[in-house]
Give the backbone structure.
Amino acid sequence: MTQTKVTNIKSLINPDGVADSQRNRGTPFHASWVDEIRINRSAVERRVSTLNARRTVKKEWQAAWLLKAISCIDLTTLSGDDTEGRVRRLCAKARAPVRSDLLRALGADQLGLTTGAVCVYHAMVPTAVNALQGSSIPVAAVSTGFPAGLSPFETRLAEIKASVEAGAAEIDIVISRRHVLTGNWHALYDEVRAFRAACGSAHLKTILATGELGSITKVGKASLVCMMAGADFIKTSTGMESVNATLPVSLVMMRMIRNYYERTGQKVGFKPAGGINTAKIALHYLMMVKEELGDDWLGPHLFRFGASRLLGDIERQLEHFVTGRYSAANRHPMG
């Protein structure tokens, strides 16, 4: 690969000036901010349709964007049959997400590429923390009665604190959907504010379960309320609803992030999750983030994919770029 191509890849994986560790401090509850939100679903769908209509990036630029996508993946296992061995294998994959021969061929073997995080249930947090020791990869724990969020409130708070004490650096909580469905926005604010306090130094990601909120306008209002309450990320879905991340709801959430930033000067991250399993879809999300939020959001500090199968397809696309042939999925095992 030529030096120009290598430079393109490096500039996309490590863009200048995007590091920003400042957390979202939140704001007092502003009912007027919520009441002002009006969303035109037809306009949202027209905007999203432009992503599918245009030709995607190709050749070395596509390879560079796909490496960027890998750095933003929360590599996830949330199955009832999870074992310590499976989690250790997943963590090994997070440390070395792409085969070394492919990275060498891409000129990217010195980038120190890893996934953005590893996401597990609370019971697997100690295993993941131990397996990732010595790396900079954080462990994210799903919490607060995931995925339904219907555990007693004190139990949910205790679950957050237990995961943080076990070493989780990020907590993915589920909100009480009933607060959104009934329009009880102050109750949602108070709930997320309490979850943020329980997280302490750990970053808080609020899962909206957008497929269960009833309307795209409620998605926008719930997004803004969670940010006012101090969420460091807003996340589309648990991955276990009948409808998970979609481009229209993601656009609405990104616009709410932009709205909040313009009002407060505070940057909040975005995490689409559920159903994002191909490189093509990942590229659509990255392009929309760039166009709607800007380059500052193109990194794992402000953008993540919640995914378990996406990495395998990205590896296949990278091998095709290097060799001109598509490989079998078993050439890119998860661990």
About this structure: Confidence is low (pLDDT under 50) at residues 15-20. The longest helix spans residues 247-264. The two ends are 28 Å apart (CA to CA).
